# Entry
Amino acid sequence: MRRVLALLLCLGCALPATAQDVELELVLLADSSGSIDYDELLFQRQSCAEALQSPEVLGAIASTAYQRIAVTYVEWAGVTSQDVVVDWTIIADASDAAGFAAALENAPARAFGRNAIGAALLKGKALIEGNDITSWRQVIDFSGDSVNNYGGPSIASARREVLEAGITINGLALLCRFCSGRPGNPNLEADFRDRIIGGIGSFVITAEDAAGFTEAVKKKLILEIAGRTPEDAPIPAAFRP
# Structure
């Protein structure tokens, strides 16, 4: 009997999965605040749609334990404005990714207001805890062009609550705002590391300009799906202060 149990533990990745079992639940939390105009919002969506359908990302999904992940795309802005653009979707193959991409590109824009990052992070946590999906890893993927927080929960308190729930926060720092000018904070990547990201394996990817944005999104997705970090990323503690 012990041998049987040991074998089952060793082969855990090969055990049958229920319909809602995945290795990763991923909340894509995209900036839709006042500093992001409509063309930039659409560009973010299109870049994500393209990256999700790339052979590299689909290959990363196929290499996970259950060969599928769960993804939702949310645009965040003001305290009461976090819009679920595409609800939780199980992505296992090119057809699933294409369906998610089509829904993402065709949805109306609804989030508005000044930055409320704390509220956005807590929205991501609520979406993970409120679904019927079971996973080994849960990640909030936060993108933004500043660390300003004009209302609602503080970034520090929201971040602490998310990390205490065992959820990792990764960051995509939008440096160029798609070439309409670098943000006022010249140390955005450092601010993301100090104030936004956290959890096991957390990291920041930088989007330098429009030309490299899709590649940055693709790189970030591959790392998140594979449970890896960039080679030059700092290794944070499980719960950063």
Summary: Residues 34-226 form a domain with the Rossmann fold fold (CATH 3.40.50.410). Confidence is low (pLDDT under 50) at residues 1-17, 178-183, 234-241. Helices lie at 2-10, 38-52, 55-62, 94-106, 117-129, 155-164, 188-196, 210-226.
